[in-house]
Each structure stands twice: as C-alpha cells, then as structure tokens.
Amino acid sequence: MLKIDRRLILNFDWGLLAAAVLVIACGLMTVLSATHVPGRLMSGLFTRQLIWATMGMIGLLAAISFDYHWLERYAYFIYAAAVLLLIMTAVLGASGGGARRWIALGPVTIQASEFAKLALVLALARHLHRHVGEHPLALRSVGVSVLLFAPAALLILKQPDLGTAVALGIMVAGLLLLAGLRLRLVVLLAAVLIPAAPLVWHHLKPYQQRRVMTFIDPNADPLGAGYHIIQSKIAIGSGMLDGKGFLHGTQNRLNFLPEQHTDFIFSVFAEEWGFLGGATLVALYLLLMLRCLSVAMRARDTFGMLLAFGITVMIFGQVLVNIGMATGSLPVVGITLPFFSYGGSSLLASMIAIGLLLNISMRRFTFASSGLS
Known about the structure:
The chain is mainly α. The chain has helices at residues 6-10, 14-34, 44-63, 69-92, 112-128, 139-158, 162-179, 183-193, 197-203, 206-213, 227-238, 250-253, 265-298, 302-326, 344-362; strands at residues 94-96, 99-105, 108-110. It has one domain (7-362).
C-alpha cells in the first residue's frame, strides 16, 4: 500500500491552489463569453479550453508527485528537448496569421514556446544555484545564463513571437538580479545588447513594427496598427464601474475587439464586469503572486528558491505585459494572459508551473542537498 508522508499534506499550500483555480475559473467564464455563438450553449473553443484545463489539472498533480530535486539533475536535458521542439516548430510547424508557432504531435497541436519558458527557468535555476553565494555574481555566470537564454529567444523571435521573447527576457533579468547581479554588470549587458536592437527591429514583421511605432500615438493609424489599442481601450472604458453584464459586452459581441479570446481577453472581462470586476481580477493576480513569492521565500534550498522565483517572474511578467498592452500602457506585442486567455499549451504549462510551486512548498522540510550542490 502506498504510504504518503504526512508532512507533504501539512505543507500543501491550499491558498496558492485556490488562487490559481479562481483565476482559471474566471478565465474559462470569459473564454465562454468571448467565443459565444448565439443559439449555442458552448462554443467549440470553450469546450477545447475546458479539456485543456482538465489536462492541466492532471499535469499539476503530476508535477507534485515527485521530489522536485530530481529536476535539478535533468534540467539541462529538459531544456535541450524544449529547444529541439522549437527547432521542429521552425521546420515543420503549422503557420497561421503570418506566424509559425505550433507543431502537431499526433492529434494534439502544441505551442512549444510555452514549455520552453518553463524549461529555461529550470536550466537557469540549475546553473545559478551554484553561484548565488558569489558577491557579486561573476561575469562568467552571467555569460552562461545569456547563452542559455539566447537559443530559445532567437528561435521564438523567428516564429515571430515578440511577446514571449520579452517575457523570457524579463524572467532572465529577474533571476540574475536575485542571484546577485550588480548594477555595473547590468550596464555592461545593456552596452552589449543595445547595439543588437536594430537587428531585432529588422527581424520583426512589418505589422509588429507598426504596433510599436503607434504605441505613442494610436490615432496616427486608427484603422491599422492603432486599431487594437483603440478598440481595447473603448471596451475597457465602456464597462464603466460595474460593467455591461456577462455576455453583454458590445465591443466583443459586435466583433470590434480583435483577438478577444487571446491577447485582449482582459478587455472582454473589463467590459462585462467594469472597473470593479477588473480591479477584482487584478487583486486575484496579486494574491496569486504573493502566494508564489511566499513559496520562493520559504524554500529551504537555493535551487528550489530560484525555481520558485523564476516561475513567479515568468508568470507575472507576462501578466504585466498583457494587461499593460490591453490598457494601452505598453506596446501591443502579442502575448496571452496566463491562466485566462484561450490557449491549451499556455494553460497546461502554467498549471504545471503551479504544480512545481506546490511541490517546492510541500517538500521544504526535505531541503538536504540533492547531491548536486
């Protein structure tokens, strides 16, 4: 008979799981609204999202079923497999909307970049946990981190997927700062990366360049590059204090709002539930972030702490960019809202990430060296 260590249950973070489930439930409700077809109870997209949420729960349970220290040993192999998937996507992936981001694995289509984010967190935690005690963090350690970041970032940019590449950069920067990166090295990194900006700019698709250029003045091209921001702000503003009600958002129903079930799903939610609803959702995300940070702070080993913090930055850097994009505070780069937007790979990867955080929380009493430190 399988014997479960009682300490695992005692250290289970029910608050973290509850916060994640609440956000996912709100996301499913909003996907239902954003993809609603009159005369039908549920759209095909909502049904698929519900299936992915079920698979995500299975993935979450799988992620807590083993000692996370095992990942330390195999982190580089996991990352190499993720990079291989990105290469397969570039060569064999399916195209849509001018991008090649998806690859078919049997009957399932996945977005490899979503899993590459998590794999990169693992690889960086594996590398940096040996160097956290260095004051300051050695330039060599920073260089290896950048080399780990570069293959995934370049392959994702090639798809092109600027939003995910930005999220990767935020996550890497956060981990390096936590590991002890000093200001002078930040300046040095900037001096190295800034000259590469024109290369990145010319690699972007014309529509991505126009989106960035119209960030300052969306009205300069109201029917083109500025259309997304303008319609998103109209949707959010039209929700006013308490919203128009579930399934009654006019910008969404009349198809004025582009990408309403993916990149701009926050606008759909804010139109239907108003400022109060939007503020409540942001508060839920803040609660989720605090629970994630609590796991990182309570971790008893450096690898677990870095892994938890990296996952936290990975998720909430993306939340910040998406909501900033929807409200017109940041350029439109094309990025989904974690746990909320339609997208099976994103939801599955995010729920596995929550499972790893729960794993770290549960096993913080087994912080003895895994043999690799």
